[in-house]
Amino acid sequence: MSDTTPASTPPSATAPGPWTPTHGAPYRPAPYRPERIAAEESLERAARLRRRMDERRTVRAFSPDPVPEQVLRDAIACAATAPSGAHQQPWTFVLVKDPEVRRRIREAAEHEEKVSYDGRLGEEWLAALRPLGTDAVKAHMTDAPALIVVFQQRYWLGEDGAKRKHYYVDESVGIAVGMLLTALHLSGLAALIHTPSPMRFLGEVLNRPENEKAFAVIPVGHPAEDCEVPDLVRKSLDQVLVEI
């Protein structure tokens, strides 16, 4: 059985209605009976996924070639299945393809980055970045055919202005972004996590509501033909895993 083998029941057959806030609603259990795959198949899938993910690299040199918009939509849909605190799903993904908007984002990001590299970061942080070969020039913002700007919803904001606190927002959005990067990579695309500091300009450029705070800008596309990446080594499994 392949990774893309459909479940026995098509999603459309059991698709729920549109999401509405569940704060204070009673617990309603639903049956969950996923297909159990054989151990041999599980081992094969895990090994294949490990090999594929080990090929993933952060890319800063992008081809301007367009990518299928549906691939980006599907990757964002995968990210939106991430677990979240109290199932509040405190994220918004803004897909930016408009060249002029991407130019404005790049211009504002480079302004902040220049201030950072000229001293705001401090020598310890700059030393940590040095092996990556980064600088204040962010050509990937306009070279890549699309940006996915991720926002945290710090609290729920109703149409009537009512507010309700969200919980574990940083953790929830971080997990969703990790799933987004995985989905993009497995779909054959390259990406980069960019976190200009401060990021307030993103909400202004993209006209986001008051409850949303920018979390990351993710350029997405294919690597440029002359793309280079830092010659880095990942920690081995023995260096990151503790078994008890």
TrEMBL record:
Entry keyword annotation includes Transmembrane helix: yes
Highest taxon listed in the record's lineage: Bacteria
Pfam families named in the record: Nitroreductase
Keyword Kinase in record: no
Gene Ontology molecular function, alphabetical: oxidoreductase activity
InterPro entries the UniProt entry points to: Nitroreductase, Nitroreductase-like, Nitroreductase/BluB
CDD domains reported in the protein's UniProt record: iodotyrosine_dehalogenase
Occurrences of domain Nitroreductase (ranges): 55-222
Leader sequence residues: none
Ranges of Low complexity composition bias in the record: 1-27
Transmembrane segments: 173-193
Region of interest (Disordered), ranges: 1-38
Keywords: Flavoprotein, FMN, Membrane, Oxidoreductase, Transmembrane, Transmembrane helix
Protein name: Nitroreductase family protein
Originating species: Streptomyces californicus
